[in-house]
Amino acid sequence: MSLYAAVDLGASSGRVAVGHIQKGVIVVREVHRFSHEAQTLSDGSIRWEWEKIVHEVIYGLNKSLELGPIKSLGIDSWAVDYGLLDSTGKLAEIPFTYRDGRTDGLMTQISQDVGREYIYSKTGIQFIFFNTAYQLFAAKGTSAFRKAKTFLMLPDLLNYILCGKKSSEVTNSSSTQLLNARSQEWDFELIKRIGLPKAMFPKIHKPKAVIGRVRGHGPIDGIKVIAVGSHDTASAVAGTPLNPNGRSAYISSGTWSLIGLELEEPVTTEKALVYNITNEVGVGGRIRFLKNVTGMWLLEESIRYWRGKGLEFTAAELAAGAAKCDSNQIIDADDLMFAKPGPMPETIARFCEETGQSVPESPFEFARCIFDSLALAYSRALKDLIDASGREIDEINIVGGGSANELLNQLTADATGKIVYSGPVEATVLGNLIIQMEADGQIDSLQAGREMISNSANRKKYIPQEGTDWEGLWNGILN
Fold it and tell me: Catalytic residue at 394?
């Protein structure tokens, strides 16, 4: 029996899971889970607990050996964040989080200086204030940047720590807004225009590539490191049982919600730019044509706020309570006022007041407002994707942690008018694993892996229901 380890890092937690194939299905066992938080340092910068993350990953990989010899491992994480290595190969500084304020205003500045249309025609990546391009621009002139010789996205940085190889996996590299959408290589003309040094950017590798073998870490030494879709959304989409007829959309639901279609070629038209749709590289060279929507971050920050007030709620408890509340308030989930850490219920209340709506009173009413707003945001994003791509859609596949929220799943079906299938919750881990299994010859293709995942997961179907005037709710906050 061949065992494969998947390291999956989210913006608030991480886990190490081990998978194998048994009687035509993929069996997954989580061996280690840990939490981590962004830390505000004395200089006001917001950074990741990087040393803790590295320690926990290595601990989890060692723990995975309790199940037997591990044939290979693959690492995926959130996008856009990176580390800088100096000339000795050491980390030049603690990695920043994408929510740090150093990029404020830079998206507008660079878009004006370089050209918004030019950037989009090259990269096909949506404009979001925390894109890696703006983070690197913000770092110019700092002592860490002056010392830096190599730039690595965080999964690639972990690969380097494990096996000493410096290279960048294409799916996560595409999120930087510095990769050419068509060649799927660094766009050095754009990089030069932004004023970044070409020498910092390592060679691109693709999923299924052998990065190396672990060395210098004791018992786990010798395990093969395989490139997976290192952008966690790329692995999540790989692990989504999309209908092979091409008429399925997906929502990877976590801290962020990624609503998208899987295409063969990027779409960088003026319409796609106006809709601010991204063309990220997926597994197998496919294009993840998607929009980022603020996701469970709204609920996570609210739970943190209430905890500080002495009120303890789980997401499941809030969903159960919200199901008993009416649809009364809507917020614009994409408004930048909701993007930064802070007292989220107070921010929601302020938005409601400013738009002439009543203010939710209980935590359950706030949760209902969040879920309704997310469902409506999904619906509006899907309409943009359909219009820009010309693709007709029959169904939506929701995967990730948010797919366990039955209320939000039903609201999504209602708001979009599309059939919704939920699950698997562990799509990212499963997508990570099937790429390793394909690289090892255990699975013939991505589609074969998806069919195996479909057979392995318990999925639920949601039929659209009428009743809520979704467009009326949206128009109410615009007037």
Answer: no
